[in-house]
From TrEMBL:
This is Glycosyltransferase family 4 protein. Residues 175-335 form the Glycosyl transferase family domain. Belongs to the glycosyltransferase group 1 family. Glycosyltransferase 4 subfamily. Residues 82-170 form the Glycosyltransferase subfamily 4-like N-terminal domain. SUPFAM superfamilies: UDP-Glycosyltransferase/glycogen phosphorylase. Gene3D superfamilies: Glycogen Phosphorylase B (3.40.50.2000). It comes from the Bacteria. CDD domains: GT4_PimA-like (cd03801). It comes from Pseudoduganella umbonata. It holds the Pfam family Glycos_transf_1. Keywords: Glycosyltransferase, Transferase. The keyword Transmembrane helix does not apply. InterPro entries: Glyco_trans_1, Glyco_trans_4-like_N. The keyword Transferase applies.
Length: 360
């Protein structure tokens, strides 16, 4: 975003975590930024959260409020579009939306949290649930990533204006990948929710019949617990815990990977999976959240029920051993991104949302 975009009156103010931060929301915003979304929609992005020290983090939050007030105080009332997850992220963004509405702005609540249903029901008391209901109902639109999440929101907050707009992902140029054999790539926040420990057990099973199998774990999370599990399972020579990796390193890892695996228990619509598909990488994932709306088992990916390491190992072995299956899954995965989740497709849906709300 150039300086002119930052200083002129914006028709849309979008707010969320820094595009340089970790996590799915940051990746989504970075894709929009790269595609020229802000220039196309006379939009401005305000960072509400950054991965910095406590004092600086507070400064970012206060600065976001000041910028929002300035942006909403002009003659033109912009639409205010926030990206939010569960817990603290929800409360921060709900207050910003309430502030924007006080200035007469239209508001868009964009939900990314994979466990928002648990947060909104069993994880919140009566007062908190009332505030969640209030935020959803008062928002001019609530954007969710999949039909399954839209179904939950319709039940939880009847009357909310729910729109389904999936995450967008950049479609890289075809590079003619030359993957290493039996190289499994995991990208995400390593831990129980993402099924990391099930994947480690699956690798243990695979190592008996595919001794060259190798798992690369890229991401943050409970890496110490993952390292302990690797040691306990005796699979140290089969697992590399790479930790958080940047865009260039991620692209290099994708080039070398045989397949991508994310055996999660809860998801929205994971960006890591979409990025792997965009690169033509076969994916082995679980049918949770919005994933079944993107993946058809045996066509553009493989679906395995969560919490079943033996079944997971069998699916991984099938993809590793079957060259034709692997090629077909990768080709179909990329085609899915191109036709349904490509940046142009999603930007068009966001543009239509803004026009429907009178923001453009």
């Amino acid at each position: 975003m150039d300086e002119r975009t930052m200083v002129k009156a914006a028709k849309v103010i979008m707010m969320g975590t820094s595009p340089e931060a970790k996590g799915g929301i940051a990746t989504v915003v970075a894709v929009l930024q790269r595609a020229g979304f802000f220039e196309l929609n006379d939009a401005r992005y305000i960072v509400t959260h950054a991965q910095v020290s406590g004092v600086r983090k507070l400064g970012v939050a206060i600065g976001a409020v000041v910028q929002l007030v300035k942006g909403c105080s002009g003659a033109q009332r912009p639409c205010v579009h926030v990206h939010a997850a569960s817990g603290v992220s929800f409360y921060r963004k709900s207050v910003l939306l309430a502030l924007a509405r006080a200035f007469g702005c239209k508001t868009v609540f964009h939900l990314h949290g994979a466990e928002f249903n648990k947060f909104a029901t069993v994880g919140s008391g009566p007062l908190a649930r009332r505030w969640i209901h209030h935020t959803l109902h008062k928002s001019s639109a609530v954007v969710t990533l999949s039909e399954s999440w839209a179904g939950f929101l319709h039940e939880f907050a009847p009357g909310a204006n729910v729109r389904v707009i999936p995450n967008s992902v950049h479609l890289p140029a075809v590079t003619g990948r030359q993957p290493e054999r039996a190289n499994i790539l995991f990208l995400g926040r390593a831990g129980q929710r993402k099924g990391t420990f099930d994947l480690l057990q699956a690798v243990k099973i695979l190592s008996a019949t595919i001794p060259e199998v190798r798992l690369v774990i890229g991401g943050d999370g409970d890496l110490a617990a993952v390292a302990r599990a690797v040691e306990e399972l005796g699979i140290g020579k089969h697992v590399e815990i790479a930790g958080w990796i940047g865009a260039e390193e991620k692209a290099r890892r994708v080039e070398k990977a045989t397949l991508f695996c994310l055996p999660s228990y809860d998801e929205g619509l994971p960006m890591a999976m979409l990025e792997a598909m965009a690169a033509g990488l076969p994916v082995v994932v679980t049918p949770v959240g919005g994933i079944p709306e993107a993946i058809t088992n045996g066509d553009n990916g493989m679906l395995v029920p969560p919490g079943q390491p033996v079944a997971l190992a069998a699916a991984l072995a099938e993809v590793i051993r079957n060259d034709d299956l692997r090629a077909r899954l990768g080709e179909r995965a990329r085609h899915t991104i191109e036709t349904r989740f490509g940046t142009a497709v999603v930007l068009d849906k966001l543009g239509r949302l803004y026009r429907d709300l009178g923001c453009s």
